Model the fold of this input.
Amino acid sequence: MPKPHPLATSSARQPNPCLATPPISTVPDNLGVLPVFAGPIRPHWQAAARAKGFDIVARVLDRYHLRLRCQTCGGNMVSKLYVVTSSCPICPHCLTARRQATANAAGVNFLGQDADRPAYGFFRADCGHTLRRQFEIVERAARGTTGLRCEICLIRREEVEARRLGWQRVGNDTGRSGYYRLYRHRCGHVQSIAPVNMAWGQCDCAGCGQSWSSRPSFIYLFDIRLPAGAGQAARHYLKLGYSAHPDKRHRHQLGLPPGAEVEVLRILPMPTGHAACAAETAAHRRLTRAHPGAVVPADEFAGVIKVTREIYRPALRAVIEAEMDKIEVGADAGRLGSSAAGPNDTMGQQPGEDKDDMADDRRPTARRTRPDRDGSRHGAA
Ligand SMILES: [Zn+2]
Ligand SMILES: [Zn+2]
Ligand SMILES: [Zn+2]
Done:
């Protein structure tokens, strides 16, 4: 049996013979130019063909091939004899018509099947460009569950958005997961940025910018204790983050309730906010992947701590400190301050909770002082 074509699934309830990708042996033969093969058409072949929606018109080429006429569309085609007797011929004309109808519903024009990959077809988009897509994707687009975006137009739009801000789009950032591009700033610095952030102008250059991303910053580890409240037991968490002003961060920006206590367990100076953001995000990624059970669900501290992630159980402290050791070595070696964007570069990602930090850092008062490391306990503001 040929594998049913995705386009055929919607009408699978109706026994229609034109329902799957045509076997290699089945080709259109509208002109009827193939040489007729002298020989009888056996009655049981004809019966099998009719049961599957076709009439045998002639034997062609050799003893193994038949010319069929589709009872649905009247189109002619060539099929191997064994397909008629033991399988199901597919009318290529009906198939093309179905694909065209599906493509039109998806807002594109069907041009033809990819000869090398039968599951793919070529389609003309409204913009005039040719898209190569799996038929299944086009089917989904026709149902409205996905879109068919033209890559050429997307790249041009991203190039224009970047040029407007003094950047040049270099290409996809294949070194990291997610949706990132490499851009070269007019100063020559290459950086990984999410296109959506480029579009919104959130793309400070870490190479030359006078922004949060190019100023010194810190990665911190806080110990947070929340007092027992109404119907709520006392809680104990760890918070790993980055900020140019970690002292201010815990006092004013975490929005802790009265009575909460914050202990600064450790602070690492970082050469730039950009490097801090990259190293911190990479550490969170490793921690959450390796220790998902130690990540506190966001709804557990919602409304009590003004962050949406990056809160851990206290038992993970040694592991987090080991991550910080690694970051410290990298920062000391100056690797994290290099101008080329690395695979863990997160410029443009801008974790929501640290937006306040960025706003702070945009003020012209950047300091290079090292915050206290005395581990003293502070009452939260
Ligand atoms: Zn047909
Ligand atoms: Zn296009
Ligand atoms: Zn620059």
Notes: The chain has three domains: 6-93, 151-203, 213-379. The longest strand covers residues 217-226. Residues 125, 127, 129, 150, 152-153 surround zinc ion (ligand 2) (CB under 6 Å). Residues 273-290 form the longest helix (18 residues).
